[in-house]
């Protein structure tokens, strides 16, 4: 379809991933000319001149770039997870700072994992308590790169995304646990200490060796449906009065026991064994993933979005999982593969 000559331009970095593909379709539906930055695309990382040409005159900039965290936290993967987020954000920052006509809004991915392991109360953007360790250090380094310096013409938003439900890696991993017979609650327990979760970056935080929490499967699980990610990005794009860190998390936070019960229901798997860390860690190694995804108590509250008037299509977990299953029903067997 031919776009009118006055079509607005959006630059999406990291558009090839699960969320990036959904946002690309949404912006195209809204009449934007979409340009991408990545290892391939309209411009590639490292080509400062090409990136600057795209960013200068763009109406919106969205950055989702970063190595997928659904992996084992080897030293090489840890370094790449951090580098791929911070370096790409700095490249875009330089392009925005140099632009004669910079984007009016820059939305940069972040993560709700920035908050501490929490079981007592939710963490919102105003009063939430920042945690420590590898995942938190990645998040804070990422956000420092976004908010560095003065960009007076560009409103900056850090999208602190909870685990996104849809046809993406986190959802597939959760259903894979169910398929393996580990669809009961995931229970933290002692396991051999390791160094994979130690801090990283210029100012590493937390202990060097891993620890555990006696949550008995009651650790909180913050999540958001992919449709609400798209809707919230549209909402934030059009609201010039909202900036800073924003929690992209559904108001209906779950706990792990409820999550896995709903996974079994949707997957039509009547039985699910409880899984202790000593079972999960080897299983997650086979799945090339980390048990932190299901063992950390993540409780993010969407205070800014809610107070700004955003309405979630999927505020509760059960209907969100039903929607995921319905959208994949023609390829149901794929829903249970990693």
Question: Which key phrases capture this entry?
Answer:
two-stranded parallel ribbon, 7-stranded parallel sheet, alpha/beta, 13 strands, disordered C terminus, Rossmann fold, 338 residues, 37% helix
Number of strands: 13
End-to-end Cα distance: 35 Å
- Percent helix range: 25-40%
Rounded radius of gyration (Å)? 20 Å
Whole-number total of structural domains? 1
Physical arrangement of strands within the biggest beta sheet: 3-2-1-4-5-6-11
The overall pLDDT, averaged over residues, is 92
How many H/I helices? 11
CATH class value: Alpha Beta
Q: Which class best fits the helix and strand makeup?
A: alpha/beta
Describe this structure in words.
Helix content is 37%, strand content 15%. The chain is of the alpha/beta class and 338 residues long. It has a single domain (9-336), classed as Rossmann fold (3-Layer(aba) Sandwich). It has a 7-stranded parallel β-sheet with strand order 3-2-1-4-5-6-11, sandwiched between helices. α1 (18-29) links the parallel β1 (9-13) and β2 (33-38). It starts with 8 loop residues before the first strand and ends in a 10-residue tail after the last helix.
């Amino acid at each position: 379809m031919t776009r009118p000559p006055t079509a607005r331009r959006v630059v999406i970095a990291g558009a090839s991933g699960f969320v990036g593909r959904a946002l690309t379709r949404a912006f195209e539906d809204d009449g934007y000319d979409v340009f991408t930055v990545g290892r391939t695309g309209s411009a590639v990382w490292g080509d400062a001149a090409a990136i600057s040409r795209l960013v200068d005159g763009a109406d919106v900039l969205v950055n989702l770039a970063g190595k997928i965290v659904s992996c084992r936290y080897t030293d090489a993967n840890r370094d790449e997870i951090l580098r791929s987020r911070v370096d790409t954000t700095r490249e875009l920052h330089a392009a925005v700072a140099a632009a004669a006509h910079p984007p009016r809004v820059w939305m940069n991915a972040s993560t709700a994992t920035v908050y501490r392991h929490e079981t007592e109360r939710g963490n919102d953007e105003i009063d939430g308590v920042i945690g420590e360790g590898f995942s938190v250090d990645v998040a804070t380094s990422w956000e420092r790169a976004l908010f560095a310096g003065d960009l007076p013409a560009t409103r900056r938003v850090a999208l602190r995304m909870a685990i996104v439900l849809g046809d993406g890696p986190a959802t597939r991993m959760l259903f894979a646990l169910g398929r393996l017979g580990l669809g009961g609650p995931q229970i933290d327990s002692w396991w051999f200490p390791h160094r994979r979760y130690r801090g990283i970056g210029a100012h590493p935080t937390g202990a060097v060796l891993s620890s555990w929490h006696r949550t008995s499967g009651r650790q909180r699980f913050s999540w958001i449906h992919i449709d609400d990610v798209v809707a919230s990005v549209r909402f934030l794009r059009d609201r010039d009065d909202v900036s800073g860190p924003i929690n992209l998390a559904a108001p209906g936070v779950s706990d792990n026991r409820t999550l896995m019960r709903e996974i079994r229901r949707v997957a039509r798997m009547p039985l699910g064994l409880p899984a202790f860390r000593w079972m999960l860690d080897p299983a997650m190694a086979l799945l090339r993933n980390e048990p932190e995804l299901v063992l950390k108590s993540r409780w993010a509250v969407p205070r800014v979005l809610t107070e700004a008037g955003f309405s979630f299509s999927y505020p509760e977990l059960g209907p969100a999982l039903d929607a995921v299953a319905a959208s994949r029903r023609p390829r149901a067997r794929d829903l249970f593969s990693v």
